[in-house]
């Protein structure tokens, strides 16, 4: 478990992707988080989830096979999933599940074009913004409507449906609400200020029921303010996901900065044998 203050500080100083936020991953999944510098990994019910993005050093694919073997040996897990910044990697015979790119916005270089500002101004005539740490029944209802409206894969739906557990157990997650003049919740974002240099754009939830043009733009404009207020260098916008999501991120200036590959495979036989021997002896 990640309990030492020096380890928490090390992660805080270097976290750059959402999967480095152990309060998020553990809150959503119920997994346990571990640090093996410069990597974080998670364990849940015999599944080892290895985050192949080093916190400080450059990624070195040639070392990964040995690092994974050691992690399997140490944990005794019989299933393995890994996210990686490059693929394929020599010596790793794993199955590719999905690929994407992380998007990032440089806070110091933000230039808000007139079209985006028009959408912000349009939405602000009908909506107001509030920041909160409390996920309540309004948010739960909106999440349920959102999941009904959106054709999402099972994994993504599961993550969104469990966001309240993450927010409840985090000291760094915030909810940014957009409400209409009748105080009805129209849309909300979840952000995380977990890292020294990054603010993380975690979720954007809206529905067709109370649609207001520009609501997501108004919310994102507030997130930029929060990034500046908390002296962050970057906004991590998360993965591209689909064309619509990518369009929104790009129109606000987000650009790909890391590739993403999710792979799964059986732990190496050598590591399994070593793990078994360790348990016996």
Distance between the termini: 24 Å
- Total strands: the figure is 11
Characterize the largest beta sheet: strand count, sense, and whether it forms a barrel: 11 strands, mixed
The ordered string of helix (H) and strand (E) elements is HHEEEHEEHEHHHEEEHEHEH
Helix amount: 25-40%
Shape designation: globular
Specify the number of helices.
Answer: 10
CATH superfamily of the largest domain: Gcn5-related N-acetyltransferase (GNAT)
User: What class do helices, strands and sheet pairing give?
Assistant: alpha+beta
Which strand order does the major sheet show? 1-2-3-4-11-5-10-9-8-7-6
Which topology of the largest domain does CATH recognise? Aminopeptidase
Structurally, the number of domains stands at 2
Q: Tell me the β content.
A: 25-35%
Overall CATH class of the largest domain:
Alpha Beta
Please identify, by name, the CATH architecture of the largest domain: 3-Layer(aba) Sandwich
Mean pLDDT: 92
Molecular structure report:
- The protein is of the alpha+beta class.
- It folds into two domains: 5-99 and 260-280, no CATH class; 104-259, Gcn5-related N-acetyltransferase (GNAT) (Aminopeptidase, 3-Layer(aba) Sandwich).
- It contains ten helices and eleven strands.
- The chain has helices at residues 5-14, 22-29, 61-75, 114-124, 137-149, 154-161, 163-168, 215-229, 243-251, 269-280; strands at 32-36, 39-44, 47-51, 79-84, 95-106, 127-132, 173-180, 185-192, 198-206, 234-239, 255-265.
- It has an eleven-stranded mixed beta sheet with strand order 1-2-3-4-11-5-10-9-8-7-6, sandwiched between helices.
- Strand 9 (198-206), helix 8 and strand 10 form a beta-alpha-beta unit.
- Helix 3 packs parallel to helix 10 and helix 4 packs across helix 8.
- The longest helix is centred in the first third of the chain and has 15 residues, at 61-75.
- The protein is globular and about 60 Å long.
- The two termini are 24 Å apart.
- Residues 273-281 have low confidence and may be disordered.
